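Why MobA-like NTP transferase domain-containing protein? Reviewers of the renewal asked for a concrete example.
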Amino acid sequence: MSETPVSVILLAAQRSGVTNPLAQRAGVVNKALAPICGRPLIEHVLEVLTTSPAIESIRIVLEPEGQNAVDAVLEPFRARGIAIELINSDANIVESVIAATKGEDRPFIITTADNVLLTHDGFEQARAKLLSCDAIISLSTREQVLGVHPDAQRGFYHFRDAGYASCNLFGLNGQKSLRVAEVFREGGQFMSNKGRMVRAFGLWNIILVGLKLVTMRKGIERLGKRFGLHVEAVLFEDGALAVDVDNERTYSIAEWVLGQRLGMDIPKPVIAPDA
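Here is what the prediction returned.
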């Protein structure tokens, strides 16, 4: 397997003027610093990244007012020899990613500071796949995700072959691949915003998926053609990779799964239907 190194863009910015509920509950300035299983969210992600092979640098995208607080937890990870720097975020996620690439024509893996269930195997699977195409999108099947916890995800993309949930692990192989990042120009959360989904993926593609006329692989191929790129899907057997800490529901599920990995006795959460 190729050991071509990648750089990681770690998205940790909050919306300007909006206080994240998890950050507010924890009394911290940025959600990335909210504790889970005894450590800030971002530390769990960095623990995986800084102990993975073939990572050249980590660029944390963050609003300027939160940088001093986040920088305070980075020194132990910098001591491991991987360059870690803070990049000023933009109000638009695509512009933030563009800024973090610094115009470099090389492979980048993009993930988030709340992706606390990231694993070495998952990251390496994504890195290896990225080196053979222009861009990657990572997914796990509905069955794999719900096998983690019945409330691990509430929304799925239903293709002809199966239902899928997206995972917060994406890849861009060079500057031309930034074209596919335009999918996120208006933000993510496509399941709750159908208009945004149509503008990002194209009406005809949405119709094909909605009628279950294409498989997931064919749908990803069509997405690539929309941007003139070779886009491939990374399919994870580990459904936990589709769970990141977005709200109280996913926090409690992620805490339970992470606690199991760390040998902590955390009860399996019971989630209310409206949570």
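The domain at 6-261 is CATH 3.90.550.10 (Spore Coat Polysaccharide Biosynthesis Protein SpsA; Chain A). This is the kind of structural detail the renewal will allow us to pursue systematically.
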